[in-house]
Design goal:
heterodimer; A: mainly alpha; 2 domains; 11 helices; B: Arc Repressor Mutant, subunit A; two-stranded antiparallel ribbon; 5 helices; 2 strands
């Protein structure tokens, strides 16, 4: 690989529109700075950080966006990004808590049942809210396609479809393998299955991130009336409340299960990978970490939405 | 938590942040990316990464504080605009006010410029 190829590859961190505007100057700067010499990892990291930052700005999730409609849309999409982290965490939690009640003494089940119930119901409400939001945005998507806007959303849509297909194939393979294993092997007894499960989980998380990025990219190109954007942002605020409820439910379940059935958490998947985890379920740590990070992103969106809703120009009937 | 007043100076960030460093560098004349990096390293001792430099250039150009100059060369030179000068002047004044206040409170007489230190609040340690 030539130095010019390396520079070109580094520039790929930035979005195409940005490269068209600043790419030539930045390439010249790289040539002046590094010539044919080694490119320090700090410079590469600076590139990656700045390039991803520009991509986030271009999507409208961060930075200055003008107009109440764009502000509400950006805030709502941030909440959706937070929700995707909850989806990943929810999948992990669902695996961890599989058949939990069989390992918990009947007299100690009351509190974990409440926690688990909150997670289940709040999760269902969250999924319903996202589905309603998708349906509300559907007419705008159809209008975009009728206007011949497919080329503008082709790449993110293709990315999402390909990652979904990869996840489907891997899920089928893992489920097929699991079919021939005993419940003990599936829950921490077989290290190879543990590793495969962790790889699959990582792929699912990456797919969720790619899928969410694709949704953000597509929604940025939709022409949604302000009244509908306002309704969607209210649904997004409700989704943020759902996230708080889910996190609360998970913490209640985890804490109560830790005292009611500690062996159930100790024997969970991933517990044998690092000896320390013998006494502390790593999968639950990962799940709750995802939830906390997701909630932090969502709260940024909540702040943006509420700030915009309080301003005068989003009162019903006002122009976008 | 720190709550900042919105103003020209604070909008540019802290005194070691790329936007302020770039405006300061361009205040003495137009420069392209590499010249900016070297100048900033010389006067502030800050080594900016190329990504951070161009990220800040993008923001400054969007806000109309700097502008590109037509060039035949692949190196793209930039110059500070009148809005950029005003923003930089505001930032410099704000930093100067903070510097003077700090010098007065520390009793650094050689740095205080014609002002008496403010009396300390009752109960505050000198």
């Amino acid at each position: 690989m030539t130095q010019s190829d390396r520079f070109e590859r580094m520039l790929k961190w930035f979005p195409p529109a940005w490269r068209a505007r600043y790419g030539e100057g930045l390439r010249a700067l790289l040539e002046d700075s590094y010539g044919d010499g080694r490119i320090p990892w700090r410079a590469r990291a600076s590139f990656a950080r700045s390039g991803l930052g520009e991509r986030v700005r271009e999507s409208g999730l961060a930075g200055d966006v003008s107009g109440a409609s764009q502000q509400l849309r950006a805030g709502s999409l941030l909440i959706l990004c937070g929700w995707s982290a909850f989806m990943a965490a929810g999948a992990i939690f669902a695996k961890v808590s599989e058949h939990w009640s069989y390992s918990t003494p009947v007299v100690s089940r009351a509190v974990p049942v409440v926690g688990y119930g909150i997670v289940t119901w709040a999760g269902a409400i969250g999924v319903a809210l996202v589905a309603v939001g998708a349906l509300a945005a559907l007419p705008s998507l159809i209008a975009l396609l009728r206007r011949g806007g497919w080329p503008s959303i082709r790449r993110p849509t293709q990315r999402a479809v390909i990652t979904c297909a990869v996840v489907a194939v891997l899920t089928g393979a893992l489920a097929g393998w699991a079919h021939f294993l005993s419940p003990q092997d599936r829950n921490g007894g077989l290290v190879a299955y543990e590793v495969a499960f962790l790889v699959w989980s990582t792929v699912v998380i990456v797919a969720l991130a790619v899928g969410t990025g694709s949704v953000v990219a597509v929604v940025a190109r939709l022409d949604i009336p302000l009244k509908r954007v306002r309704a969607l942002s209210m649904a997004a605020l409700a989704l943020a409340l759902v996230m708080v409820a889910v996190l609360g439910g998970v913490v209640v379940w985890w804490v109560s299960e830790s005292s009611a059935a500690p062996s159930f958490l100790r024997d969970n998947i991933g517990s044998g990978i690092v000896p320390l985890f013998r006494t502390f379920s790593p999968t639950m740590v990962v799940a709750v970490t995802f939830m906390v990070l997701g909630l932090a992103v969502a709260l940024k969106g909540v702040a943006r939405v509420t700030r915009t809703l309080r301003s005068a120009d989003v009162t019903p009937g006002a122009a976008a | 938590m720190v709550t900042r007043r919105r103003g020209a100076g604070t909008a540019l960030g802290r005194n070691n942040e790329p936007p302020l460093l770039i405006l300061t560098s361009l205040a003495s004349g137009e420069k392209h990316g590499y010249a900016l990096l070297r100048d900033i390293e010389a006067f502030a001792g800050v080594v900016l990464g190329p990504g951070a430099l161009y990220g800040a250039i993008t923001r400054l150009e969007e806000r109309g504080l700097i502008e590109p100059i037509p060039s035949e060369d692949r190196r793209q030179p930039y110059r500070i605009t009148s809005s950029g000068r005003a923003a930089l002047a505001g930032a410099v004044r704000e930093m100067r006010a903070l510097s003077d206040e700090g010098a007065a409170r520390l009793g650094l007489r050689e740095m205080v410029r014609g002002r008496a230190p403010r009396p300390l609040r009752q109960g505050a340690t000198p």
